[in-house]
């Protein structure tokens, strides 16, 4: 990476009603810029993965996770942190309700909880308990058990705020024109191509193996409750495999064996649909194979490129019951563009493990003769996945404290 790639640029925005500016690298998060450059330390940083909600601030009137928002993308924006609510009458009532209902203990999650609660009260005056819980589900608290927080929000809603307290939302706007934003967000190595379509480019599929150098690697070995013969029958059938992967759909396979399709990810704040192409190569004798592929999410202009090698083996020795096999997987990938923020190994490992678990269960079901799951059942259950991932990440985080 060259020095020019990391050259600092000036970013200017309004922070809590006052002009603010800082010199930031292209990859500096808004959270780091607020805390380290502008000393607005009321914004807390927990997971740094967009999962826990501790870093939530308002950007142009909308709750935003500042740990996964690039500071450079906030040029000209109105940023409001928890400090900016010091004189706000509605926030004063929310703070008071949190105090009365014991909605905080250590206070680590509290700035994010307060900003989210403020958004709920202002946006959903009729929210019932279930809706409040759903709206708060992106904010994690290790201490309170949530009951006090939910009660505090209910309390404020039950005593409807006088209209004068509610500040209208500013007009939503794009922070920068789309092309400038893409250029500002493009991280070193990303191709700032102008095409706005997320359709894969037509023509031959020339996969650039060299582009995987320095990518993130992941290896797993899983026990599969079905014989190697049965599992291989599924694994070597591309459309059957696509039907077992949550969020994946196959459009077709061309005459050269190149598959095109889409993988949709909806994980809390992460929403992306990578459309692209992949080429599988099988060694039927060895029951192994390799798939290389690349895709692009048109909305965020992020690109994903990866290779997956797999080998299936019959269970040996004491475990050789004819109904057990082992699948070894090695994966290497690069994620470029704004979604690179989500490509951190800790998050990816948690997500990959859970997806692998679901995929293997579906492969075992297919190997046992079950029908392909319906499209609805194959949809990625983002909320359940997020909950599982958040639990694991938070477990690690708090063990560190
Ligand atoms: Fe930003 Fe956890 S620190 S969501
Ligand atoms: Fe401690 Fe929520 S009050 S994490």
What this model shows, in words?
The protein has 401 residues and is an alpha+beta fold. Strands 6-12-11-10-9-8-7 form a 7-stranded antiparallel beta sheet. A 5-stranded mixed beta sheet has the order 2-1-5-3-4, with helices on both faces. About 7% of the residues have low confidence. It binds FE2/S2 (inorganic) cluster (2 copies). The site of one FE2/S2 (inorganic) cluster has 11 residues, from loops.
Order of secondary-structure elements? EEHEEEHHHHHEHHEEEEEEHHH
Query: Can you count the beta strands?
Result: 12
Contiguous uncertain segments of 5+ residues = 171-199
Largest beta-sheet details: 7 strands, antiparallel
| Range of strand content | 15-25%
Q: Roughly how much helix do the residues carry, as a percent range?
A: 25-40%
Write the layout of secondary structure elements.
Blueprint: E1 9-15, E2 18-24, H1 30-37, E3 56-59, E4 62-65, E5 78-80, H2 89-100, H3 110-123, H4 129-135, H5 147-158, H6 178-185, E6 216-224, H7 228-235, H8 238-244, E7 248-253, E8 259-267, E9 270-283, E10 288-297, E11 302-314, E12 325-336, H9 345-367, H10 375-378, H11 382-400
Parallel strand pairs: 1-5
Antiparallel strand pairs: 1-2, 3-4, 3-5, 6-12, 7-8, 8-9, 9-10, 10-11, 11-12
Helix pairs in contact: 2-3, 2-5, 3-5, 7-9, 8-9, 9-11
The structure holds FE2/S2 (inorganic) cluster (2 copies).
One FE2/S2 (inorganic) cluster binds at residues 45-48, 50-55, 65, 67.
């Amino acid at each position: 990476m060259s020095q020019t790639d990391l050259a600092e640029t000036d970013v200017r925005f309004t922070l809590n009603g006052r002009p603010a500016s800082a010199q930031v690298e292209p990859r500096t998060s808004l959270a780091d810029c607020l805390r380290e450059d502008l000393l607005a330390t009321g914004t807390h940083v927990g997971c740094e993965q967009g999962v826990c909600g501790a870093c939530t601030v308002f950007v142009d009137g909308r709750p935003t996770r500042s740990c996964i928002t690039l500071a450079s993308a906030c040029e000209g924006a109105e940023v409001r942190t928890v400090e900016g609510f010091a004189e706000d009458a509605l926030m004063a009532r929310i703070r008071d309700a949190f105090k009365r209902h014991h909605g905080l203990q250590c206070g680590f999650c509290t700035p994010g909880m307060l900003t989210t609660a403020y958004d709920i009260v202002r946006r959903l005056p009729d929210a019932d308990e279930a809706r409040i819980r759903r709206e708060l589900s992106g904010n994690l608290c290790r201490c309170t058990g949530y009951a006090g927080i939910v009660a505090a929000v209910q309390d404020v809603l039950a005593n409807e705020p006088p209209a004068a307290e509610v500040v209208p939302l500013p007009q939503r706007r794009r922070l920068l024109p789309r092309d400038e934003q893409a250029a500002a967000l493009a991280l070193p190595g990303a191709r700032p191509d102008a095409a706005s379509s997320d359709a894969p480019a037509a023509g031959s599929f020339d996969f650039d193996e060299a582009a995987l150098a320095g990518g993130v690697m992941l290896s797993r070995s899983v026990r599969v409750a079905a014989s190697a013969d049965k599992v291989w029958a599924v694994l070597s059938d591309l459309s059957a495999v696509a039907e077992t992967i949550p969020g994946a759909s196959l459009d077709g396979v061309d005459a050269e064996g190149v598959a095109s399709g889409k993988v949709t990810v909806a994980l809390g704040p992460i929403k992306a649909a990578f459309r692209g192409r992949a080429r599988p190569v099988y060694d039927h004798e060895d029951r192994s194979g390799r798939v290389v592929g690349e895709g692009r999410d048109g909305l965020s202009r992020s690109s994903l490129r990866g290779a997956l090698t797999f080998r299936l083996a019959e269970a040996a020795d004491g475990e050789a019951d004819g109904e057990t096999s082992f699948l070894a997987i090695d994966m290497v990938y690069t994620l470029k563009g704004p979604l690179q923020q989500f490509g951190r190994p800790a998050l990816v490992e948690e997500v990959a493990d859970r997806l692998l678990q679901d995929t293997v269960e579906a492969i075992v079901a297919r190997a046992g003769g079950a029908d392909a799951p319906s499209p609805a059942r194959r949809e990625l259950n983002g909320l359940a996945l997020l909950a599982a991932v958040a639990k694991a990440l938070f477990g690690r985080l708090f063990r560190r404290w």
